[in-house]
Amino acid sequence: MANPGAEEDHLARYRSPLVSRYASAEMAFNFSERKILFPLQSLGLAITDEQIKEMEANLDNIDFKMAAEEEKKLRHDVMAHVHTFAHCCPKAAAIIHLGATSCYVGDNTDLIVLRDGFDLLLPKLARVISRLGDFAEKHADLPTLGFTHYQPAQLTTVGKRCCLWIQDLCMDLQNLERARDDLRFRGVKGTTGTQASFLQLFEGDHSKVEELDRLVTAKAGFKRAYMVTGQTYSRKVDIEVLSVLASLGASIHKICTDIRLLANLKEIEEPFEKDQIGSSAMPYKRNPMRSERCCSLARHLMTLVLDPLQTASVQWFERTLDDSANRRVCLAEAFLTADIILSTLQNISEGLVVYPKVIEKRIRQELPFMATENIIMAMVKAGGNRQDCHEKIRVLSQQAAAVVKQEGGDNDFIARVRADPYFSPIHKQLESLLDPSSFTGRAPQQVAKFLKEEVRPALIPYQSKMGGKIELAL
Fold it and tell me: Which domain, by its residues, includes 395?
């Protein structure tokens, strides 16, 4: 049973946590009901300056309560606002929505919102790339154990591993830029996309219809409009938009999964604040909650692309209305979710903590086995027989592996090599043969070249928006 007065209590009604808990104010506003379209100038029609001025003066004068009442009565969202706007603009009431259709308002507004959504996301993504680039540069030379199949493999560096993350994000940056720049305006197309109503208004003057389409498109800040549409712009556009956002979600999920695994290894941790509680039951825990949040929301983001895929596939002829409710949810949620995980990842990347001693200890556990080929080569140069040396090392390495796996001891392979007179010719070389930096190949050089030639140039358009740190509200 509902509590009395529940409609006044915001805690008594479901609110999307994307808005109420996580989203930035800018992205939340971008998908709010206050994001409105502009009035049109005329091309020789009987529209007075007084009517235009009246509409301009009332652009922000929106009676949402009246609009809700009108929509309840009319069962039509756009016409509800047309009636509400006409109430504020009695002199212009006759020409509001002249020649237009609901999708002229709705679809054109959606395209503006999608474009502006990209404009909010792109600088955030650039900031994440920049922060991770600084981290990669700082740790370009720090050797760390590489993993394939999550099994110990050859060494890499902390900075090089971070560059793998950055490379994926740079691809996402390019994809978001392309999707943003590929967006066109629906423009002035009419009920089924033929522009018939506008051709009638201009008494058969095709040039004026084309000029109106061009003027409205330019007024909205677009360089191009779609040349052909049905009642709506093609819903494949929404597929393209949400595909690049889903791909961004996959990148962030991978990055934050790596961070969670590294936190378990105690090699790298996300920021952990002084009074932060990792677990209500286990006070010692430092759970990677930020990275877990990113993974959780990234999974939601990746699934949202299924909505426009299915919607586009079932649009009948010039349009059917079963797209509307679905798009209200999936488009907004995709941008809000991407906004949240980018802000969270920026916060993570600005406070990553590295534990070199733990990293070094793990390397020391695995490096002796990796160094066997170096030891064999050194023995051959000292006059030894490769086959004899290989057999000696095989026996000693198996003995050392048994100590590690069966007894839980440290890897004592090098101690066994030192104790064996056979290897006396290279005993003095063992330290240099075991220098971790000699096992990282060109990783440091790759980091420097990648940051210089690919990453930094990609961030140039966003240099004026690189400032500011992210502090998470929750």
Answer: 358-428
Q: Read off the pLDDT of residues 195-241 as tens digits, 9 standing for 90 and up.
A: 998 898 888 999 999 998 998 899 899 999 999 999 999 999 999 99
The encoded tokens of residue 70 equal: 């009108």
> What is the tally of structural domains in the chain?
3
429 touches 374 (CB < 8 A): no
Query: Among candidates 238, 347, 243, 253, which has minimal Cα distance to 299?
Result: 253
> Within the chain, how many helices (H) and strands (E) appear?
20, 4
Give the up-direction half-sphere exposure of residue 1: CA atoms within 13 A in the CB hemisphere.
Answer: 1
H helices within 62-157, ranges in order? 64-74, 77-88, 102-138
The string of DSSP codes covering 402-419 is HHHHHS-----HHHHHHH
What is the SS3 string spanning 248-276? Answer: HHHHHHHHHHHHHHHHHHCCEECCCCCCC
For the question of residue 427 being annotated catalytic, the response is no
52/117 same-domain check: no
Residues 166 and 68 in one domain: no
DSSP per-residue codes, 346-410: HHHHTS-EE-HHHHHHHHHHHHHHHTHHHHHHHHHHTT--HHHHHHHHHHHHHHHHHHHHHS---
Given the residues 32, 279, 437, 438, the one annotated as active site: 279
Whether 279 is a known active-site residue: answer yes
79 lies in the same domain as 116: no
**223 lies in the same domain as 323:** yes
Rounded distance between C-alpha atoms, residue 264 and residue 287, angstroms: 9
Inter-CA distances, 264 with 77, 191, 337, 349, Å: 51, 58, 26, 18
Q: Using the 8-state DSSP alphabet, how is residue 37 labeled?
A: P
Shared domain for 339 and 369, answered yes or no, is no
DSSP 451: I
Per-residue tokens: 9: 């209590």
What pLDDT digit, counting tens, does each position of 131-164 carry? 999 999 999 999 999 999 999 889 999 999 999 9
Q: What is the pTM of this model?
A: 0.84
Residues 6+ apart with CB under 8 A from 449: none
Check the CA dihedral 173-177-182-187 and report its sign. positive
Place of tokens 């940056």: 173
**SS3 state at 277:** coil
Domain with residue 84: its CATH number is: 1.10.275.10
Catalytic option among 10, 149, 280, 464: 149
Report if residue 5 sits inside a domain.
Answer: no
